Amino acid sequence: MAGRLPSAAPAPPAGAPPALALRGLVKAFDGKLAVDGVSLDVPVGSFYGLVGPNGAGKTTTLSMATGLLRPDAGTAYVLGTDVWKDPITAKRLMGVLPDGVRLFDRLSGEQLILYSGLLHGLDRPTASARARDLLAAFGLADAASTLVVDYSAGMTKKVALAAALVDAPRLLVLDEPFESVDPISAANIRSILTDFTAGGGTVIVSSHVMDLVQRMCDHVAVVAAGRILAAGTVDQVRAGESLEERFVQLVGGPGKSEGLTWLHT
Ligand SMILES: Nc1ncnc2c1ncn2[C@@H]1O[C@H](COP(=O)(O)OP(=O)(O)OP(=O)(O)O)[C@@H](O)[C@H]1O
C-alpha cells in the first residue's frame, strides 16, 4: 500500500533564520477569513512596519505570531523556533505589546516593570535596576509610584512597552505602540526602538500612520483583507511615491464621501 503523503507542514526558514518568519498563517472567525495565508520574513536587525486599513488582519496576524491566538493553519518562527511547537523558547526571545493592553493596573509603574522582569526570570536586583532605567528612559520616573490604573492612555502604552523590554528580548512585536501617544512621547519611543535595532534587536510594529512608518521603518508590509499586498524595504514598496500614496493605490477603497449630501448645509 502506498504510504500516505506527509502532511503539508509549513517548512521552517532555511539558512540563518529571520527574526520572525510567518508561514501560511490562516485564521477565520465564524467562517469569515481574517487572515488568508500570510507569509513574511522579518530580517534580524530590521525595523519592520505592518500597515493596513481597519480590519485588515494586522492584530490577528501578530496575535498568531506571538502565541496568543492559535492559527487555523500555518505557523510562525522566532529566530528559527516554532512558536506553536516550542512556545516557551520562542516567548523567551520576544517582547510583546498586544492590542488593547490589559495590565496588572493596581501595581505602580515601577512594580509592574519589576514584576514583568521577575516573571521573565531576572533576579530581583537586576529587574529592579532595569525598571528604574526604563522608567527614566520613558520619562516615567516621576510616576514610578503612581498606580498604573491612574496613568493616562499614553503613559500606559509606555509602561507596557517598558515591561516588554525589561528582559532584553531579541524581537519586539508591537501592536499600535503610538496610539494615544503624544508627539514628544512618540519621538521618545522611536528613539528607544531605533537604539534597540542598532544594537541588533528587531522590531515589528503595526501602525496606521504612514508618515511615521516611512520615517521610522526600514521595511514594510501592506496588508488588506487578510493578505499581504506588498512587502520589502520601504523604498521598494513605496516605489518613488510616498508610502501613503502607495498605500492608497494598493488598498483602494472609498474615496469621496458620496451619499452624504445631507451633511452639506
Ligand atoms: N475575536 C474575534 N472574533 C470575531 N471576529 C474577529 C475577532 N478578531 C478579529 N476579528 C475580525 O477579523 C478581521 C481582522 O481584524 P483585526 O483586528 O486583525 O484587524 P486590524 O488590521 O488589526 O484592524 P485595526 O487596524 O482596525 O485594528 C476583522 O474583520 C475583525 O472584525
TrEMBL record:
Q: Which SUPFAM superfamilies match?
A: P-loop containing nucleoside triphosphate hydrolases
Q: Which InterPro entries match?
A: AAA+_ATPase, ABC_transporter-like_ATP-bd, ABC_transporter_ATP-binding, P-loop_NTPase
Lineage of source species: Bacteria, Bacillati, Actinomycetota, Actinomycetes, Micrococcales
Where on the tree of life does the source sit, at the highest rank?
A: Bacteria
Cell compartment(s), UniProt: Cell membrane
For this UniProt record, the keywords arranged alphabetically read as follows:
Antibiotic resistance, ATP-binding, Nucleotide-binding, Transport
Species of provenance: Sinomonas flava
Respond yes or no to whether keyword Repressor is given for this record: no
- Name by which UniProt lists this protein: ABC transporter ATP-binding protein
